Structures are given as structure tokens and as C-alpha cells.
Amino acid sequence: MLQAGKLETDQMETLDYSQEKEKGDTQQVKRFRDEKLKAAESWYADYKQVARIVLKDTPEYLEKLGI
Questions:
Q1: Would you tell me how many other CB atoms lie within 10 Å of the CB of residue 32?
Q2: Model confidence, pTM
Q3: Comparing C-alpha atoms, which of 29, 49, 31, 27 is closest to residue 39?
Q4: What confidence category does residue 52 fall into, taking pLDDT thresholds of 50, 70 and 90?
Q5: How many angstroms separate the CA atoms of 50 and 57, rounded?
Q6: Domain range spanning residue 55?
Q7: Cys staple from 62: which of 4, 20, 47, 67, with CB 3.0 to 4.6 Å?
């Protein structure tokens, strides 16, 4: 009976460790995603700015680009 309780406790500790590891992995992935999204948003802002300058005489092209 005591041994069964120890086994159960060990299993719970293993599951708890796995869950905490998954949480850490998830947070790391979210940080990576957020960094890449920020970089893409910055690139797109630059792209729109350049497009406005280059296409200032052709507003229909800007409209086609959604700018």
C-alpha cells in the first residue's frame, strides 16, 4: 500500500515536471512569434512608406496595394 502511494507520487511529480516544461516551451515559442511579428510589421511599415513615395503619381497602384 505504501509502495503504491510512492509510485503515484512519483508519477504525479513526473507529470508536473512535464507540464511545467510545456509551459516554458510555450512561452518561448510565443516570444519568438512576437519577435518575428514585430520585425514583419516594421518591414511592412517601411514598405508602405517607400511605396507611397515611389507611387505618389499613380494612386491607383497604391489602392491596388491596399495603401
A1: 10
A2: 0.60
A3: 31
A4: very high
A5: 13
A6: 2-65
A7: 67
Asked if residue 27 has pLDDT above 90, the reply is: yes
Number of independent structural domains in the chain: 1
Instruction: Determine what percent of the chain falls in helix, strand and coil, rounding each to the nearest 5.
Output: 90, 0, 10
Helix runs in the chain, H state only: 2-54, 59-65
Better pLDDT: 16 or 56: 56
Rounded to an integer, what distance in angstroms lies between the CA atom of residue 64 and that of residue 67?
8
Q: Which residue has the cell 519568438?
A: 32
Residue closest to 52 by CA, chosen among 43, 65, 40, 39: 65
Cell of 66: 491596399
